[in-house]
Design a protein that fits this description.
globular; Udp-n-acetylmuramoylalanyl-d-glutamate--2,6- Diaminopimelate Ligase, Chain: A, domain 1; alpha/beta; eleven-stranded mixed beta sheet; about 25% strand; six-stranded mixed beta sheet; UDP-N-acetylmuramoyl-L-alanine:D-glutamate ligase; Protein-Tyrosine Phosphatase, Chain A
């Protein structure tokens, strides 16, 4: 692509005069100098740990014809330097141009919120597939294009990876796609100029405050994709919004999008769930639809939903996805079958039958709200006289405020807790554990142990459990590693359970 076409609509401060940009062909884009090839444009991203400007010279040696920078660099005069105020922001424009706006031809659903995003993406993909559409999706766990797996480093990849992913999807005949949209991806311009059709808002609870500082900032960032003022940037036709959540109420009241609201026994919601039955085997519920716009489109006023998933938090995930299905004009029977055929998500309330007929559950819950939800759900599934044993820790270099809160939550709901290590990163694992322990001290609960080694903590919990007890292991879910200050090791909660069962 000609450089002049690539920089169309880019707000640049200037371009060096070396050569005519109408005559310069760009063969690719990279933010990693080591991946630059002949004819590439290198984008110098000022990162949190490393500044891409320091690697521009290496990019030129590797074949870059041009660089996008926030300051003029000492480079050969033959290299075009595109000077901009914000490389992250303008990269999104360049990537859309280079890949020719691939999301404009795909029905794309963006799912945002604190908890439930991954499960909601899997459910949405299942509904679309049952409806006969070729699909692709991106989640924290994995990404797929028509069943072919891919992997990304972030919850939401950067704009370069996203545009490449959707261009590949389009070339393979993908008709519908769904993806998680994190607050970081919105704030760091990763999803700028990605053309969404539908949005799903799950909930907003305390998380990422190490980055956003407070809940109001966190909400303001999330709300951007629902704002009329930024419709040009994110697209969007309609949204499925949880109004049992107070932030969801604010979004629904202010957005210009066509809205389908949902809640449990909420008289103000368009879509509600009642007669809910939740067991270790799954959920059955009656869904009621109250808006004539949708009833006139062929949906029943009340219909039955069955799912192998369990727990009230999954009732919300299911309702949100039913909302997306209705907004996207998917037949009711396809919505019902799509939800019923999605058996579960790795590391999301994943049920594992361990030795001694103990029910182990592995979940990604790493926020106060998430931990409370899964603990209450697990307790609701317990047979009479059985115990709930909780195993969890908190990540290092992340929101410290939630540690004591999560300790108090486990102390209040579980019969016994083992506080352990999660991903301590650069922090002392035992220091993190002591912060969690403060929550137990507040409540006066002494039914807990501190075991820093996560595998030993899991084994101890399983040793303590009796038949029909539930051991809930929270925090890491699908992750198969632990991060320490100077190393990253292989570790899987699921494998730790399997090893204990074989011993």
């Amino acid at each position: 692509m000609r450089l002049t076409e690539l920089v169309k609509n880019v707000n640049f401060l200037g371009i060096t005069a070396a050569g005519n940009i109408d005559e310069i062909d760009i063969s690719g884009i990279s933010i990693n100098s080591k991946k630059v090839k002949k004819g590439y444009l290198f984008v110098a991203i000022p990162g949190f740990k490393k500044d891409g400007h320091a690697y521009a010279a290496e990019a030129v040696i590797n074949g870059a014809k041009a660089v996008m920078v926030q300051k003029t660099l000492e480079l050969p005069t033959s290299i075009q330097q595109i000077l901009v105020k914000d490389c992250r922001k303008e990269m999104a424009v360049i990537c859309r141009n280079f890949y020719r706006n691939p999301t404009s031809d795909i029905m794309l659903t963006g799912i945002t919120g604190t908890n439930g995003k991954t499960t909601s993406v899997f459910l949405t993909d299942s509904v679309f597939r049952i409806a006969g559409l070729k699909t692709a999706y991106i989640t924290t766990i994995k990404a797929e294009i028509s069943g072919i797996p891919l992997s990304f480093d972030r919850t939401t990849p950067d704009s370069l990876d996203l545009n490449e992913f959707f261009a590949n999807s389009l070339s393979r005949g993908i008709q519908a796609a769904s993806m998680e949209v994190s607050s970081h991806s919105i704030d760091l311009h990763r999803v700028d100029w990605i053309e969404f059709d539908y949005f799903l808002f799950t909930n907003l609870t305390q998380d990422h405050l190490d980055y956003h500082e407070n809940m109001e900032n966190y909400f303001t960032v999330k709300n951007r994709i629902f704002s009329k003022d930024e419709r040009y940037l994110f697209g969007g036709k309609a949204a499925s919004i949880n109004i049992d959540d107070n932030y969801g109420k604010k979004i629904a009241a202010a957005t210009d999008l066509k809205v389908l609201t949902f809640g449990i026994n909420n008289g103000n919601a368009i879509l509600t769930a009642g007669r809910i039955s939740s067991s270790i085997n799954g959920i059955e519920m009656e869904v009621a639809l109250s808006d004539k716009r949708f009833l006139n489109a062929g949906y029943d006023k009340k219909f039955l939903i069955k799912s192998p998933l369990c727990g009230y938090f999954n009732v919300y995930n299911i309702l949100g996805v039913i909302g997306i299905g209705i907004l996207a004009d998917i037949e009711q029977k396809c919505i019902q079958e799509g939800i019923n055929s999605m058996a579960g998500v790795p590391g999301r309330f994943e049920k594992i039958r361990a030795g001694k007929k103990i029910n182990a559950i592995v979940d990604y819950a790493h926020t106060p709200d998430g931990l409370e939800n899964v603990l209450r759900t697990a307790r609701s599934l317990l047979p009479e006289s059985a115990r709930l044993i909780s195993v969890f820790g908190c990540g290092g270099d992340r929101d410290r405020k939630k540690r004591k809160i999560m300790g108090d939550i486990s102390a209040s709901i579980a019969d016994f807790t083992i506080i352990t290590s999660d991903n301590p990163r650069t922090e002392d694992p035992e220091s993190i554990i002591r912060m969690i322990e403060e929550g137990f001290m507040i409540s006066g609960n002494t039914s807990y142990l501190k075991i820093t080694d996560r595998k030993k903590a899991i084994s101890k919990a399983l040793d303590m459990a009796s038949e029909n007890d539930i051991v809930l292991i929270a925090g890491k879910g699908h992750e198969d590693y632990q991060e320490f200050a100077d190393t990253k090791i292989h570790f899987s909660d699921q494998e730790a359970i399997a090893d204990w069962s074989r011993a």
